[in-house]
Amino acid sequence: MNIFKNxxxxxxxxxxxxxxxxxxxxxxxDRYLSQLALISFGMHTIIHLERKSIRSLVTAENGxxxxxxxxxxxxxxxxxxxxxxxxxxxxxAGLLVFPFVFSLTSLxxxxxxxxxxxxxxxxxxxxxxxxxxxxxxIIYYYGFPLKSLFSYSFINQNFSSPLAMHATYLSAxxxxxxxxxxxxxxxxxKQKNRWLYLVCxxxxxxxxxxxxxxxxxxxxxxxxxxxxxFMAFEGKKRIKYFLVSFCITAFAVFLIAGTQVFxxxxxxxxRADLKKEPINQQIPEPRMARWEAAFELIRVSPITGYGSGxxxxxxxxxxxxxxxxxxxxxxxxxxxxYLALWLKHGIAGLLVFxxxxxxxxxxxxxxxxxxxxxxxxxxTVMSFSENxxxxxxxxxxxxxxxxxxxxxxxxxxxxxxSDKNAEIV
Length: 425
Description:
The chain is mostly helical. The chain is built from 20 helices and no strands. It has helices spanning 11-26, 31-47, 60-65, 67-75, 82-91, 94-104, 109-142, 157-160, 167-187, 191-211, 214-232, 235-258, 260-273, 287-300, 311-321, 325-330, 337-366, 370-382, 392-407, 413-417. The N and C termini lie close together (7 Å).
């Protein structure tokens, strides 16, 4: 396993590779560091730009990858919230930047993508260990009982706060890392590496339980029970996998049901979130109430929507009208990417996004790429509960990995299998 060694390539490509590695290293942490790494990579790519690469910019593939950014750009033509629309355009700039720089770079993405992704998975594992270490240090310092680790003080947003990360997006990084490590485990030659990948997967699962993101767990469960076994195993091996998977899932359910804080987070709060009226003070205004407010606005202008940047202003007015005062004061968005696009860009905007997702599934299945499938499931499910394309980490998660997995194509496993010491990285 040689992911931390320099790559056998020319100097320009080695610098490009380590720029991407730096971006992935900083991705689960503060956004400014990952932005600096991206800007530096873009400048380096432009400095070493080859004229023939410019022809690859204007393609249908790049248009699909940047489709949401293009929707936001077109929505500026008829919006009444131009200033906010321009802000949204800047936030979503990564959706345009990633496919363009990947088209211009001379770095062979197919050759190095597994190595970069595995580096990202190890970085995420290190982040989980740091978060557990930080939590245990606080518990020791204040003399709390060890069982307080499984309390509201150390789960969800409170667990991810030392990294200044939203729990849902950090959970998405961990879930994608699990698929990366599973892919590496399937193709590993050395037994010690296989054990290392399994240990890292267990650490990431522990982090996911602590982060308690329901949407990410749903996506990971779908991946675990459908795409992964059918793409990775055949015959008796698939049956064996289902038996082991069922036991692990049953244990996780038993753990959640037997721990009060997880039972409340995963079950009670989920039920409350689907109510139209609040049933306790922890969730004063459930998501369903905000979705209903968004639907009322959509019904007024379902075809064209209201334009880019209009979501927060319109929802604030509707929240006040419906006496959803907490949502009004916090200026909460729809918390549903599908409704958000429908609200801003009409039915055409929603259909463009759905087409992009369908195209992504088609590419992932055609490439027989389990990492790509897991990514698409995460985006699809998370979009039901979050506006993932209206925040920096969501844009970077969607824009970077979507573009990388498309541009790198089918993993070049043959070039690694010829070298017994290289594994798949």
